[in-house]
Amino acid sequence: MTKGQLTIPSDENFFDATKALIEKWGADAIRDSDGTKLDPELKTLSMKFYSTYFVARGHNDFAKAHMDTTQELYLMSKRTLGAETSLAIPFMAEYYDQQIQPNYNNDPKVYWEVIDRTTGEVVAPERWLVDQNDNVVTIADSVPYHEYTVSFLAYMIWDPTEMYNHLTNDWGDKEHEIPFDVRQPGAADFMQNFLKEWLPANPEIDVVRFTTFFYHFTLVFDQHAREKFVDWLGYGGTVSVAALEAFEKVHGYRLRPEDFVDAGFYNSTFRPPSQHYLDYIDFIQRFVSDQAKILVDMVHAAGKEAMMFLGDNWIGAEPYGPYFKEIGLDSVVGSVGNGITLRLIADIPGVKYTEGRFLPYFFPDVFHEGNDPVIEARTNWLTARRAIMRKPLDRIGYGGYLKLANQFPEFVDYVTHVADEFRDIYQRIHDVKPYSGLKVGILNSWGKLRSWQPFIVAHGKWYQQTYSYEGVLEALSGAAVDVSFLSFSDILANGIPEDLDVIINVGAAGTAFSGGDIWRNEQLVTMMRQWVAAGHGFVGIGEPTATLVPYQGRRFQLADVLGVDQEIGYGLSTDRYDVPVDAAAKAFIVGALPLDFGEGARGLFPIGDATTVVKEDHDTRLVTNDYGAGRGVYLAGLPFSPTNANLLLRALYYAAHQEQSLNQYYAENPNVEVNAYPSAGLIAILNNTNEHQTSAVYLNGHQTNVDLVPGEIRWEREAE
């Protein structure tokens, strides 16, 4: 057993048990959790102490005395059908009145919009009235059978995370925490003065864990206290009249409510961002970085470390953004739901160390009689471990209520195993660059800013319609390839990086991830064709390079590169014929692997000289296409599984014309993976399952066979 690099939660009146778990797990740091306080006796231990620090919530004395500083957002009413006379719209009907209250402090006629959603026209302010007692907007002369909405500015009077925790853990009469806005008069001074007093009053605290800074990701509840809209990357909660006015001074134009409401889509990260929205994101990131730096500098002046939690109020402090490094944080901690979220945290530049909170949280929804938390813990660890082998975190930990976890001895034993195995991995490879057979770029609207975050919901949750695409990122999180993220604007301005072997474009038509109408850009299409033809690979998954409406006779604008296009009904009168199956390509990419394309795209047909590799139910599912000296490979979808991770890796090597290099470090069994660390002379062979596995493996090009017990990592020395 080794010690260190592990943070655990604790609580009041739990000293002896906490001390025993510290010894068993080798923990070296203790943290509090939302709704808990640390036992004073813990301070007698030689440990590092983290304190959760809420900047913009948990200060209700200030918030109640300054309700005009409450955080705000723009919301849209339900769509209401016009009547023959006046139309009344109860715009709060679908919102939870314990979380949302309309802002009547600022003139609705100036800051709200009523829109005819049938025509898209804005209804002139003189044509509607607001009843502030009943929260109703009345339109004097609505058009019959036209739909109308109200875009209104609202106060968020209950912090969304505290609300979620309150409802999940049944906190009963606990006072609701009101979030307030650092931009409002007096709020910044309060935040700074409170921290100034707090720091010397808590000398035992070594790490101030900001949870997080100022603005919560967009999370709004409906009238039944259920989640109505949630976007982990959403900037909806950053809005205020002060922000709108400051933005106009900087950018020279005024934002509308529609720039935020977005016809009800709320600028979801799936939407190709407008230039107005990109300008606003940049504006908020600059402001948050400036304000956060003030607080971080205060923490450093007090001789303490400043840590940011990657969640809750983290909007504007995106760690891959251009201003993040200026904050000066020591570390970032976040929840690890899978390999994607592991890499999201571990790859963050500009901090001294990274830390991951593993699942399950010690909450009663998991730790209750009749449930086995080891099942989730094991799945979480084995999933995240793939990514750790590519880029380790510096520390790990758990959150929640330690009293609950202590009631499950098998879980306690499994955490011991996780902690020891993590420390062993870290000691071997934390400063060693792993072998990467290829350099792969992920191309979408967000690029580097949202590294590892396409399709993300937070904590590894997934959407039914996108799990077929998210699997691509999950597969890459632990694959022996070097991954980078590119935006369309990046390559249009700077060209395609010279060292890339393959570019992946993955997602549904019209989304920010596939690209939508950016593919009408002649410069982009020409550049990509030229790059592939020069000898590179292009892999499209789902509806890559697709415009919502076919453009110049194509749905996929790089159909000629991929060798496939999509029929949406316009070309049904055109005959389509099967093309030959490329047996060699099928043998290399697919082999004997079972296939799963998930909710993959439909209506696909090969074009030109493409060769079909796989066809199911009369629908083309996998296509290869030689293009000049390069190659295109198309897959209809790729939900994550070990088999599909293996399939994607083989497809990437095929697209890059580097089939002969696959067996440098490789395992034939998809449940087994090989990672090599040439500068350290180490090779790690992983069994990524909780079952016995055997496999032929290639180590530095030489074949051998392995027999692995459940969850085993076998370390080998590189043969000289």
UniProtKB/TrEMBL annotation:
GO terms for molecular function: 1,4-alpha-oligoglucan phosphorylase activity. Residues 665-715 form the Lacto-N-biose phosphorylase C-terminal domain. SUPFAM superfamilies: Class I glutamine amidotransferase-like. Residues 439-660 form the Lacto-N-biose phosphorylase central domain. Transmembrane segments: none annotated. It comes from the Bacteria. Residues 4-435 form the Lacto-N-biose phosphorylase-like N-terminal TIM barrel domain. Signal peptide: none annotated. This is 1,3-beta-galactosyl-N-acetylhexosamine phosphorylase. It comes from Lacticaseibacillus brantae DSM 23927.
